[in-house]
Structures are given as C-alpha cells and as structure tokens.
C-alpha cells in the first residue's frame, strides 16, 4: 500500500469523531427534538386548552384595573400576595393576576432601598394566576403555573420531567451535537470532482449519505443557533458562558439597587401605574409589579415575547410616577440583544414563521438521525466494521486549528470534556489492541 495522504488521514479522523458524536448525542437529541416539537406549538395548544380563561367577549368599557385586581384577591387562597399583573393587551384579553407566598424575610418595609424583584430561587413553585374579565370584573378561573402545558413541555424538554439533576443529559447531547455539526460540515465540504449538491440516481448507502450530509449542512446555521442558545441556559456550560459574558462586560443592564419612593400623598393605584407606563412605553404590553411597603417602587417590564426589540425595564416612584430607571433595547449589550432574540427564537415565540422554521428544523434533525443509523446498519450488513476505519497517522494529522477549537469547546463545556476523555480512553485501548494484534508472534 502506498503512502496515505494527510487529507485522507484527516477525513478518516473526522469520520471517526463524527461517528462518536452521533453515537453519544443520538438518544438525547432524539428526546430533545420530539419534546421540542411539542413545545413549538405551545401557543396553539394552550389557546385550545385555556381559551375560556384567557379570552373574553368585549362588552362596553373596561373597568379600572384595580377592580380586576380586587376581584382576583378575593378569589386567591389566603396567605398569598400579588406578585405581578399583566393588563389586557387586546380587547379580548383577560387580566392576569399572579399570586405567590411572600419572599422569606419579607416585612411591611420590604422594598425599601431596592426595587421589586423577581421571585427568589425556590419561590414560584406555588405561583397561581387568577384570570379576570376586565369588562365585568368576574373571575374566570385560576391556574397554578406548574400545571400549564407550557411548563410541562419545558420541563420535559430540558430535564425529562425530573429535577435539575437531570439537565446534564440534554446538555451532553447538545455538546456532542455541536461536534457532530462541525465535523459534518468538514466532511461534506466539496472537493475537486465531488460536488456538495445531491445527485439523482444514487441508491443504497450512497443515496442516504448524500442527503444526510446535504440537509445537515443546509440547516447548519439554524442548527448552530439552536445548539448555542440551548447551551447558554444549560447548567454547567451555561455557567461558563455567563462568566465569560460578565468578564467581557456583556451582561444586560440591571436595575440599580437603592431605588425607593419617599411617601408623599396618596400612592398610585394599579390603573394609574398602568396609564403612566403606557405613556412612557406606548407600544408594548407591560407586566406590572407592585411596591412592597411604603418605600417600594412600581416596576414594569415587557410582557411581549414576540417582539424582543420592545424589551424594557421601568421603575417608577410609587407616589408621583416619576421615572427612577428606564432601560430599553438601545441600552442592551450585544450579548443581551443576541440572547433576547435567540432564546425566544429557540422556543418558537416569534410568530408562526418561527414555528414553521423550527418544525422543518426538527424534521431535518430526525431525518439526520434516522439516515445516520440506516447507513450504519447498511455498513454492518456489507461486512464492514461498525466504527469508521481510522487510517494510520490520523491522530497526528489533526489540524492545529481543530485542536485549539476542541480544547476551547472542552473548556467551555465540562460535560463534553469529561465524555471526550472517556472516548479518548476507548480509542487508546482500541489502538493498543490493534497494535498487539499486528505484532509478530
């Protein structure tokens, strides 16, 4: 046998890595894709499930927002307090009033020196939303957030309905899916005499292979966006991403501590706070968070996930409505803007076009998984080994850029590093076995 070219060595190495990535990622990616398909169509599913709670028949003028909040208070279980209110964005929308238990350590003066904040870790497990007709002031019903279909689908997609300890599985699958994507692009890249476009007439394993490669690369940018946005809120890799974000000064602007109101006359009621917010941010449906105690502040943020560019944070004096803090899209960092668009896109929240695109993406992923395993079993039936053949010197032919990229990915994604170490150990054992088999007796 003549000398093997470095290009052939590298291709054999990347085939080998691509196979390992597929072997590890396939079960997790299959679960994530199937559960993600459910999550994509959450708006349509919830519209059917909860339409009687979320939609009303407009009739006359709306009552003041305070009337709806008062009706919700009467219907809420004892011991809960109002956490947030989402006023109706459209004529047919109900008012949503969210209740939860007070944060640990809360007192009558809670909120002095700080704005009303999001629920603390662990809080929110018993969060209840009461839906009220804004025209008649009638309570339409209530619902625990944990019982919503969207929450069930999210927990299924991220941790298989288990606790946070199971999130590692999806993170492991996403890490190796990224490797599978990068190596797949390298293997597909057209070479002289081998065009990247599929050719008609190919049958068998070659036919499966060309479509497997083409569709994978065709949706490569979308795949990359889905994997990277998923990794940003994963458990271990997500912590590293957030640390890099903060180190680079790309954290989103935060409401400063120390904002408070000085009692001066009557405080704003719910309707007045809503009117003031609409004056300052007229085009975005808000979520309102009430003051805590006499020195607390009103806080408003965007309740519209379909338009990330409308994202804002607003803090108002509880008595005269003076603006204490206001940050909109222009104040977001580049990372914050990318996250504000990428995460809703990952969830299919940007509209029907987003859902259709994600459906096509999911179908492509399923085809890639199925076609990959079809090729594997066709290879086995042809009498070839299960693992792609690794040419002599393949590991030494690794491009330096690939080594640096691999080290960077392993540093960013601890689960990838741990599982890659196991793969390298298996490869070393296989190498020693081949060496022993080839040694003269």
UniProtKB/TrEMBL annotation:
Transmembrane regions listed in the UniProt entry: 20-41, 168-189, 211-233, 356-377, 397-426
Keywords: Membrane, Transmembrane, Transmembrane helix
UniProt biased composition (Pro residues): 284-293
Biased amino acid composition, Low complexity: 102-119
Segments for region (Disordered): 102-123, 284-304
InterPro entries (alphabetical): PepSY-ass_TM
Keyword Protein biosynthesis: no
PANTHER family named among the record's database cross-references: IRON-REGULATED INNER MEMBRANE PROTEIN-RELATED, PEPSY DOMAIN-CONTAINING PROTEIN
Name of the protein described by the UniProt record: PepSY domain-containing protein
